[in-house]
Amino acid sequence: xxxxxxxxxxxxxxxxxxxxxxxxxxxxxxxxxxxxxxxxxxxxxxxxxxxxxxxxxxxxxxxxxxxxxxxxxxxxxxxxxxxxxxxxxxxxxxxxxxxxxxxxxxxxxxxxxxxxxxxxxxxxxxxxxxxxxxxxxxxxxxxxxxxxxxxxxxxxxxxxxxxxxxxxxxxxxxxxxxxxxxxxxxxxxxxxxxxxxxxxxxxxxxxxxxxxxxxxxxxxxxxxxxxxxxxxxxxxxxxxxxxxxxxxxxxxxxxxxxxxxxxxxxxxxxxxxxxxxxxxxxxxxxxxxxxxxxxxxxxxxxxxxxxxxxxxxxxxxxxxxxxxxxxxxxxxxxxxxxxxxxxxxxxxxxxxxxxxxxxxxxxxxxxxxxxxxxxxxxxxxxxxxxxxxxxxxxxxxxxxxxxxxxxxxxxxxxxxxxxxxxxxxxxxxxxxxxxxxxxxxxxxxxxxxxxxxxxxxxxxxxxxxxxxxxxxxxxxxxxxxxxxxxxxxxxxxxxxxxxxxxxxxxxxxxxxxxxxxxxxxxxxxxxxxxxxxxxxxxxxxxxxxxxxxxxxxxxxxxxxxxxxxxxxxxxxxxxxxxxxxxxxxxxxxxxxxxxxxxxxxxxxxxxxxxxxxxxxxxxxxxxxxxxxxxxxxxxxxxxxxxxxxxxxxxxxxxxxxxxxxxxxxxxxxxxxxxxxxxxxxxxxxxxxxxxxxxxxxxxxxxxxxxxxxxxxxxxxxxxxxxxxxxxxxxxxxxxxxxxxxxxxxxxxxxxxxxxxxxxxxxxxxxxxxxxxxxxxxxxxxxxxxxxxxxxxxxxxxxxxxxxxxxxxxxxxxxxxx
Length: 817
Ligand SMILES: *Cc1c(COP(=O)(O)O)cnc(C)c1O
Hints:
By secondary structure, the chain is an alpha/beta fold. Among the domains are: 160 residues, Rossmann fold (3-Layer(aba) Sandwich); 329 residues, Rossmann fold. The chain has 33 helices and 24 strands. It has a 9-stranded mixed β-sheet with strand order 7-10-11-4-1-12-13-17-18. The model has no long low-confidence stretch (mean pLDDT 95). The structure holds pyridoxal-5'-phosphate. The site of pyridoxal-5'-phosphate has 14 residues, from α6, α24 and α25.
């Protein structure tokens, strides 16, 4: 490599320069004549023009990082739920308006282009979106970091609702190409599977393996209002050149090609499950595939500027977003010990200093374990390493006083009850220097319940970092009307320091600000109503209360509790149609995992209830129910700014944090919620008079459960609840198929109601009545909505990343000079 200074065009961002870039990129980048260009081509050209303007920043950030020999963070995640990039990049560069003008100059409407961009939906829900918000904040804060994951060809499935039921269609998001990524075919690592281990000269060799190559695709992640950038590097599988040459030589060309295709399946699709997919061999291959490539890449980068591993842990931090990337631990051990011949003890010490792990769930069924037998077939060397780490850990634990054989069995990395399985979370804890939960409550319960033995063994290892969201996407981009109003009131600095929003409190009682605030919310409701009218054929009153539950469909999130309230409200309106009712539009959105029967039945119930309610002439505008299909990042950006009420009603102790709750409050919705996850901290921040808290606390849930919870008592004692449940059971909402929802009834009434829907029902309905009363008191509701926005400072992902950088990764921002 030579270091000549290249002569390149300096790209400024005036309207003229942008227009020139657009023309150049359309012609030389897309290869289209303006007369033949479709909107899709213009979007591509515009994306390239924007990307060009990011590249100079990217290169100078990378150079600075090398010069300063900074410590880098490797953020490993199976999922990055990015959404669209175009608007985000324009806002980060501060060129939204000039680009709009430049496009108008060539006769193109930018707003129409924006909707053509497919979402990069490489994630299921909260966990993947968190990773995307974190990348944005790392870049904005200048934290030298990389996101590492898989470049799935098929992202999260598209959800259609046909006859009220979820129908999944594949999301081939790369159909029109991806202008944001740079393919790096020269960056390629072999990833091995299978084979066996042999001892040679005192070292272990892993032999007789098959391999697939991992090749890199890089995306620039721009920081907001800084020239700092970061990189998201996603791996794609490529069959090795020589694969199945024998079949080829025997003239079986077709079989040779088929084998190549099969070996590339590893990066084909995202598993559409929002918890764990343990048990599926291809899933395990995916997990190993991306962490192996990442560990090889990280070592290569480290060795470019260091000749020994002596300073490894000063220069590298590896973060595990949940347990999916935990195989990075034995993989790094293998590379250090077997390949680079670092002594075992030194290697393990490095590993323990570089790794950290975030736990995302307390639900035992969602904690990943892998069958020892499967591991021994697919990754025999890694299994040996895990056993060795385990032996050493158990030896130290018993030296430290853990003599009780029952305790040893409990904490072992290998679950010996029944079929032997490796407990991935335990491996992550033992090999990391920090383990965090994602809200105060979750971190407490994590150390009290699922990891209590480890918390006693390693008291300093456990910590909390409450999740956050990026205000750039979730306020500035999603709600230009509210963002503009806030800018006028307190200036634009909140985008980079969300605590600035606290200044909104001084506008308390300012009638013109409150009026403008209501107008901004109303315009977002009109925007949504307009889109919904388009595909439902219904009209929505923008002055009705927009009540929103948007998130994955899951029993623990309790969409059923919400539906029960809707049914009771419907029955009440029909019983007393002449009364004054606070008009409501109840909106649901969310995907069900494709194999999750109950979640799919819940979607069908919501749609059947909607059909009944929306077409009942007695009800009219007093109640409307909508299930909006295909929830994803772009739909969230449309829905969330239009909400008045945010439904965060999980059974206390089940939602680790939630981030939807933060997005909605930031957009001026009031929360109705349980004391669960980050709801508790939201309540502390905004004040209990500006939030509707109801239901059993986590401790009360435990108490009820151990005292013997009897849901049928609630059914028998509450007449309105009984009527609603009987309507569900007897086909009131499904006259053509009366037994359709009988499982829902039995789950709640007869089969234990694991998520305690019935126990919280009465309190929920009461809280909803309080919501109605507050909403009609317009000044009071507006004041609370403003308090919610003002109190969101600590829920910025910038705050979360600053905590990770300081307390867990111990990294400093790059100096840009
Ligand atoms: C924020 C977000 C989530 C997480 O929502 P929760 O309410 O916290 O479960 C899921 N999906 C998308 C698309 C999101 O933007």
